[in-house]
Amino acid sequence: MTLTNPTEETIAAIASAVSPGEGAIAIVKVSGPLAKKVVSTIVRIPGKQEWKSHSILYGYVIDQKTTKKIDEVLILIMDGPRSFTGEDVVEIHCHGGLIAVQATLEQVLIQPNTRRAFPGEFSQRAVLNGRLDITQAEAIQELISARTQKAAQLAMAGMDGDISNAIKKIKNQLIDQLSEIEARIDFEEDLPALNSKTLFADLMLIRDQLNQLISDAKQGCLIRNGLKVALIGSPNVGKSSLLNFFSKKEKAIVTSMPGTTRDLLESDVILKGIPITLLDTAGIRETNDAIEKIGVSRSHKALLTADVVVLIFDVSQGWTTNDQKLLKQIPTDTPKLIVGNKSDLPSQDSGSIANATMSALTGEGENEVIMKLLKICGANTTSGVEIALNQRQLDLVNDAVNAIDQIAEVAAQHLPWDFWTIDLREAIYKLNEVTGEELTEVLLDRIFARFCIGK
């Protein structure tokens, strides 16, 4: 997507989820200098309704070739700059489904100087026209894709400008430091000398603020994206029972026969506000069953892709040789949790091996397993996170921290103030990129290309 001038073209797209037989309302959004002219051309408005800003009109979309009615609609008019994009915006609220809304969009797109919007182009225009900064626009997409209440709260904080305000506050501190240094460079004889130790200490405090944002971003990633947790173990230790228990659904067949699960089963659950994808794997063991071999092979692959591995064993049978083999197969850098299941039965002496015990039958020990699972992957401290950078923003803040760290080397070598300014300017530049003050058009296109069409 490349825009020479975002106000020269009028764009349109369906701005709501469209599904056959579902949804009472579907929305076609039109933005640009011809928005009102385009829509007024394809609709028939009965009576003396006025086309004035921030009003709602009632009418019909008309097929321009056959003059037949396509749909009965409401039309919302928002003159720029008091609109989402900062341009004239008209929304056509059709009946839901597929046919009426698609036919309405087609009538819009056949009008002169009107084209289909690219993914994220409405939000991009909002940024280019100063209605939003880049962090607010990104937060809109994050709100749309939020899987939990906490993820939605973080997205709303971004939409309210909390990320932008935090970055700008830190950036202004760096600008103050840069101004002090440059003043000494230009007017060294007229101003008192700077204390390099005090200045460096202040910069380290600023770095600490950035590092806190980095730490919170890692927690925010867990809140947004969740964790992929592989449940592994010998056949018949209760992996499927555990999956059914946590998901509250009978997704897996549970029998006393070993090797029942022949393929990977997935279940999405929310544990303490964190989205979790549970992978119930086939019991890993030596087998001559061709189908079961495929399941075992996929279980091995799940070990390599999971964020966390939960190794389940039967406490009533005790820790076995096969359990020990499975433990050694877990990648050393993957967090793991050893859970003893069937604690409702008389147990063997395996208490020192298990990190936690529970009964998938009665639910005893459920909370302990959940809390320990979240703890080993660092997801148990997300409650205090108020704002969270996305990956693009996180990379830039890391770059800013690295630039400040370079000043430590400059200070250690007692180099002139000019060398300090180089890294300070780099840190400020990276923070400007976070909020969009230094973004190129190519980078903007790349960011908004990941948005959904109509947003």
3D architecture notes:
There is one protein chain. The chain is flat and about 85 Å long. The protein has 455 residues and is an alpha/beta fold. It has helices spanning 35-42, 99-109, 121-128, 134-144, 149-159, 162-186, 196-225, 239-247, 290-305, 321-329, 366-376, 391-412, 417-435, 441-448; strands spanning 10-14, 25-31, 43-44, 55-62, 69-78, 89-95, 114-116, 227-233, 265-271, 274-280, 308-314, 336-341, 356-357. The chain has three domains: 10-132, 2-Layer Sandwich (Gyrase A, domain 2); 149-222 and 387-435, Four Helix Bundle (Hemerythrin (Met), subunit A), CATH 1.20.120.430; 233-378, Rossmann fold (3-Layer(aba) Sandwich), CATH 3.40.50.300.
CATH homology-level superfamily of the largest domain: P-loop containing nucleotide triphosphate hydrolases
Mean pLDDT across all residues, rounded?
A: 84
- The strand line-up of the biggest sheet is 3-4-5-6-2-1-7
Would you identify the regions where 5 or more consecutive residues have pLDDT less than 50?
Answer: 250-263
Structure summary, number of beta strands: 13
As a percent range, the share of helical residues equals 40-55%
By secondary-structure content and strand pairing, the structural class works out as alpha/beta
What is the overall shape? flat
Strand content: 15-25%
Largest beta sheet, briefly?
7 strands, mixed
Features:
single chain, 455 residues, alpha/beta, Four Helix Bundle (Hemerythrin (Met), subunit A), Rossmann fold, 3 domains, 7-stranded mixed beta sheet, 44% helix, flat
